[in-house]
Amino acid sequence: MPRRIVIVGAGQAGLAAAAKLRQAGFAGSITMLGDEGLMPYQRPPLSKAYLLGKLEADRLSYRNEEFYRHEEIEVAPGEAAVEIDRAAGEVVTTLRRISYDHLVLATGARPIELPAPMAAGISNIFYLRNRADADRLRPSLKQGARLLVVGGGYVGLEVAAAARQAGASVTLVEMAPRILNRVAAEPTAAYFRNLHSAKGVEIREGTGLTELTVDGARVTASLADGSRHSADAVVVGIGVRPNASLAMQAGLAVEGGIVVDAFGRTTDPHIWAAGDCTTFEYDGEMIRIESVPHAIDQAEHVARNVLGAGRAYRPRPWFWSDQFDTKLQIAGLNRGYDRVQSAGGPAESSMTISYFLGERLLAVDCLNDARSFMQAKRQLGL
Amino acid sequence: MPKITFALPDGKERTCSANEGLSLMEVALQNALPGIIAECNGSAACATCHVIVEDALAAMLDPISEHENDMLEFTAAARQPGSRLSCQIRVDDRLDGAIVRIPAEA
């Protein structure tokens, strides 16, 4: 039985692992290391309610201090891990060395940044991953402000919606031929394109950012189509990269994420990983899933497996997004689909988009249609 | 501060002091109560924070939205009269002394 478990990362997966270890009866020490100086908190609201000021900082926390005391989970929120000394079985932090019997990496992911030469010397470029990012961005979302959102994925669209609701004028640019190009089919993209247009967000697809110039407090963006846009702030949401450098330096297998097996184990039997930072086999391919429920589920499997459960993890991927008054719920993973089918739903604003490979249902995007989502989830065995 | 008693899936009870303004789900999480998973952190997107409230309290609470109503049709433990998503219930005086049951998963 392990006695000392160290968790690197104080986000959703790290907390889920710690809580599950205790629930499963682990009585040894649990140390969770973070690098933001904040106790574990929820990230999804950062691009939604929190950004709009509808949810205050203390409500972002998953648990209060009493929880950590009661469960005897030591959280060192500002003590980043800098190295894993596998030979010694120790994590080196910014302050000390901590021994572990088992180590759980829950290091998450970080936003992909604009090319350095493009962003050099411009202070009003924002990314959105941490509470600090949201706190910096928040003052820019106000009546009369002009915001440029780079990237038409879910984060970009959510920020655009929040900014518009705060009264800012918003232009969103997407380099790919259409928004949600990588993650959803055209009918879903069309739904959001129409929703955003109706709310006054200007969406420009099929055109990339070629240059940013700064003039006082203003940024001017030049686009590939030759147009120029002046903005008070530029928000970049063009995807994330897993935080795998600790694992890589320690010699663990990393292939676009920390490689784990079905049990959540890395290539070192004493080191495990969960959440956004991991890559694992799914239907014969190595994939990474950016999803809260997946992070929780995988972390809980890891916790049980550290204690010897030997339970293989099969992802139950599902996702959600809130934009204006629309709730999107996605069941399943649509990768590899060859056909989509759209249908209306109970309300005028409802729509479901089902993804098939041959006859097999892979995933369903449900817009304002909770019933279809829950049915699809059940049908897909999620 | 309202005091709420949770009847847990294993038959035990826990009485918790709850800060007004939090959701019932948040109170359950803060107290590490079993059976409240809350995968979506309160977005009413997952139905894993299912609770059952007493008739008297059910009648006092704000009405169930259509979205919540649809989600409740698909909870892991079967829906009952008094079934709610605890993320959609805001703590205030009305909940003082309430008994809220967390159902065992079917």
From TrEMBL, chain A:
GO molecular function: oxidoreductase activity, acting on NAD(P)H
Statement: the UniProt record of this protein carries the keyword Flavoprotein: yes
Domain Reductase C-terminal: 318-379
Keyword Nucleotide-binding attributed: no
Keyword tags: FAD, Flavoprotein, Oxidoreductase, Plasmid
Pfam families (alphabetical): Pyr_redox_2, Reductase_C
Positions of the FAD/NAD(P)-binding domain: 4-299
Gene Ontology cellular component list: cytoplasm
InterPro entries: FAD-oxidoreductase/Apoptosis, FAD/NAD-bd_sf, FAD/NAD-binding_dom, FAD/NAD-linked_Rdtase_dimer_sf, Reductase_C
Cofactor(s) the protein requires to work: FAD
Protein name in the entry: Ferredoxin reductase
Source organism: Sinorhizobium sojae CCBAU 05684
Automatic annotation (TrEMBL), chain B:
Superkingdom assignment: Bacteria
Any one GO BP annotation for this protein: P450-containing electron transport chain
GO cellular component term of the entry, any: cytosol
Annotated keywords: 2Fe-2S, Iron, Iron-sulfur, Metal-binding, Plasmid
InterPro entries found in the cross-reference section: 2Fe-2S_ferredoxin-like_sf, 2Fe-2S_ferredoxin-type, Adrenodoxin-like, Adrenodoxin_Fe-S_BS, Beta-grasp_dom_sf
Limits of the 2Fe-2S ferredoxin-type domain: 2-106
GO MF, one annotated term: metal ion binding
Family: Belongs to the adrenodoxin/putidaredoxin family.
UniProt protein name: Ferredoxin, 2Fe-2S
Source organism of this protein record: Sinorhizobium sojae CCBAU 05684
